[in-house]
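Problem: given the chain below (399 residues), write out its structure.
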Amino acid sequence: MPVDTSHRKNGRQRARRWIWFTSCLALFAVIVVFAVLIAKGPGPAGPTASGSPGASASASGQTGPPVALPGASASASASASGTASASASASASASAGASASAGAHPPATHGATPGPPVAGGGGGSYVQAGTQGYRGSMSALTVYSAANKKVPNSDCKWITANGYLRCDNDSLSLSHVEIEGGLYFTGCGSLTISDSVIYLAPSNTWFDVYAQCANGESGSSLTVTGTTLSTGPGVPTYTGGSDIGGLWTDSERPLFVSHSLLQGFPQGLDPDGGSVIKDNEIYPALAQCSSGGICHGDGLFSQGGSNMLYEGNRIVMPPSNVTAAVFYQSDGSNVGNQVIGNYLEGGAYTVYNESATAVNVENNTFGGGIYGNACLTGSATWGVWSGNVDVRGAMVASS
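Solution.
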């Protein structure tokens, strides 16, 4: 079984996790104190003016882990718990509004119902729940599993002890396949997956799609379109014990992921420089890590890289014990990154920037975070911040 290498990317984040958390918590405390002082007003205590002296806020639209897909049953519950002396409540309801065709695998509907954009602009166009991932009939897919022993080509084989498919091609292209047990790709070229479903279940490994080569060839990439990457039918709880997303790589090959569904993993994706993540549904879930704590939860987690585009995605985080829907954290300064026209919901802060320079955040719709919509620390900066609204259509500030 391949060695779990997720610690190579995530080891350093644990030592810094308290640094950014306490920084944002301190900022939150200052805002609260400032609001209290304003509410009291100058001079001695006396009768207050009519109306509310302050305002309360709660994260909206938190709906918890994905529910079962059609034809399978599952239940899940989650209770929000503060990681410091703070608490937040979140509630929302959503309905699919349409039935899926027999044999198809649409996702559950997640998140609050966004309101109309404010007059004159604000809030971009993003995908709606239940519209991305593989949307065709499962009978149209070629099934590869440890049970039937089928393989896509002669360079692939089943590792039966752990139940995953290993492919040693330099480059690999897969279309209209259903892989049951996960894919381990060792090639240093490009990997392309389209119109497919890849389940981690029923294997006992830690990855769904793992591009193992640490030194990708020049010009190579990892491309996923119109595909569902999931823990399994019914979205069972992830038990791999690692801070990973549905597609994981040790290399710096860019990710080109579009019109796909990623659900059930602690993270959505960890893109590298030059990646384009466009028009996807991303639903991370709480999971226990091998370290004993809750796995690091993010929607899109950049640990370094410039010129990345996140556009038109729908990212909904669990209601507690998560970092952000979009998180920039790395050792160096990165430039040219854009977050454009997404629906972003959940996280301690929904968009958190610890390291990237001049990130453009435009025309996004915010579903609410536990402590706020955005947090900026260290040397990080925003570039253009405009047209961002909440689900009611009100403008969202950068801090």
